[in-house]
Specification:
With 483 residues, the chain is mostly helical. It is built from 23 helices and no strands.
Length: 483
């Protein structure tokens, strides 16, 4: 645990060694320490310097067209690769595997600090593997390439291939290398950025939690905490019981405080506020009494934490029924990073909420611009639904139900609401089952069928009770009183 002393000794070794070959083991350990100490930029420049001395050419920046060409050429290179191919591929020479080690560290840092360089670095890892053989770091290259492909393409073919190559790489890691040190990084990349396209969200959340446990067990706390952030986010979106999720978030926050990981604390505090608001508007679950759970002026503010705040403000406003506020924060988020063409889980959720929320906005201002948003959301969600009906079918049905209701097609609306409720129940999204019941209740109320509305509102209240949201239960109780 004496990382500062180790870093000092490594610098002395590097100063005394004469040739690069003798320095490589010291450089390898140094960049690992720098990354663990959240000195990512220093780690990146160190790797860049070493790889340049090894003869690698790394551009300072790539234009979008150049990036697209690199991704396309890599896709062609591995388009016929199977899981068997990875298991039987020749072993990379140990002297060359060090290249992959440095590229892996660079890519991990670039993902957050230099996102425009991330695709190039990942594609270079894949290219070196296909040319010289596979090593344990190659697995990370394939999984990160899958994340690149999901981020740059929305076609069903590309998404399915990305999921396939990601899972094949994980199988290779388990069966061929059994490299425990790679597990937390691989799980974070695959289950955080790829798997939600094709795997149930509940499974993604479970595997991210395993990624956290794996990271902590081998002393990779930095990567472990990345898994913790994505675990809480994915579990929240999947509708996990809110009080249980709050306990888990507090557990992660306590550990992040012990390890002085301010970046993790910043994100988890944002998530915690949302969970607390959904439970009881913070009446008994607020973080104000505990400074460890509060973001201060001295807290690290990651580059995309502002976007995360806009997402959570929009998310909270939607579930609280504040349609204008929700619309405002979604607009702010879209200004920061256009959702069009991206496929992070948070972007998909925002697309869904944006479509639903616009029906409330249309009651106040019926504009052509607002009328386009729900249909665009339906089209986008149908694309995601083609890869995972488990995760997205209920969302498509609910958007269609609201559109039918808005257009006065009452029978079609009733059928779509029923489909939304049934599919949410089948996928175990208890919060979205409650939401579908609630919105169906409003439709029946609008039609004058108060008995039907009462039954649906009662179902919604039961779902919200199982979710652990007193906030939503109180809202439904007020609706029942009006009937």
């Amino acid at each position: 645990g004496y990382v500062e002393k180790a870093q000092t000794i490594l610098q002395e070794i590097l100063g005394e060694c004469c040739c690069l070959e003798d320095k490589l083991p010291a450089y390898s350990l140094l960049v690992t320490i720098l990354n663990a100490r959240e000195e990512g930029v220093h780690a990146y420049t160190t790797c860049e310097e070493v790889l340049s001395q090894l003869g690698e050419t790394i551009p300072k920046l790539l234009e979008p067209k150049e990036t697209a060409n690199v991704i396309l050429s890599t896709s062609k290179l591995i388009q016929n690769t199977t899981d068997t191919d990875l298991l039987e591929m020749k072993e990379m020479d140990e002297n060359l595997s060090i290249y992959l080690k440095f590229y892996s560290v660079m890519a991990t840092v670039a993902f957050f600090a230099k996102p425009k360089m991330f695709p190039f670095l990942v594609c270079r890892m894949v290219e070196l593997t296909m040319k010289h053989g596979i090593c344990k770091y190659s697995v990370m290259g394939f999984v990160m390439y899958a994340a690149v492909l999901c981020g740059k393409s929305s076609t069903s073919k590309d998404i399915k291939f990305a999921s396939y190559i990601g899972k094949a790489a994980i199988t290779c890691l388990k069966k061929r290398f059994q490299a425990a040190v790679q597990v937390p990084k691989v799980y974070f990349s695959y289950y955080g950025y790829v798997a939600f396209h094709t795997e149930p969200l509940q499974l993604c959340a479970q595997m991210l939690r395993q990624g956290f446990d794996a990271g902590m067990s081998i002393g990779e706390s930095g990567t472990a905490f990345f898994n913790s952030i994505h675990h809480i986010k994915t579990a929240l979106i999947a509708g996990e019981n809110l009080p249980t999720l709050l306990d888990r978030a507090d557990y992660y926050l306590d550990l992040a405080d012990q390890y002085k990981n301010e970046l993790t604390k910043t994100y988890l505090c944002i998530f915690r506020e949302t969970i607390s608001t959904l439970i009881d508007k913070g009446e008994t679950t607020s973080s104000k009494s505990n400074p460890k759970y509060t973001i201060t002026e001295n807290s690290i503010k990651p580059a995309n934490s502002s976007e995360a705040k806009q997402f959570h403000r929009a998310f909270q406003a939607f579930w609280l029924g504040h349609s204008e506020r929700c619309h405002h924060f979604i607009g702010r988020m879209l200004e920061m990073n256009s959702v069009a063409g991206t496929s992070r889980l948070s972007d998909v959720v925002i697309t869904f909420l944006h479509g639903l929320n616009c029906f409330q906005m249309l009651k106040k201002q019926n504009t052509s611009k607002l009328r386009l948003i729900p249909q665009d959301a339906i089209n986008a969600l149908k694309t995601f639904n083609s890869n995972s009906q488990w995760n997205f079918r209920n969302k498509v049905h609910l958007l269609e139900a609201e559109l039918f209701s808005f257009r006065g097609k009452h029978e079609e609306a009733k059928a779509s609401y029923a489909a939304a409720i049934s599919s949410a129940q089948c996928s175990r999204f208890i919060h979205e089952q409650g939401l579908a019941c609630e919105l169906a209740g409003f439709h029946y109320k609008k039609m004058g069928d108060h008995e039907g509305a009462r039954g649906l509102f009662s179902q919604a209240r039961q779902c919200y009770s199982e979710w652990g949201s007193q906030t939503k239960m109180d809202s439904i109780a007020r609706e029942l009183e009006t009937l």
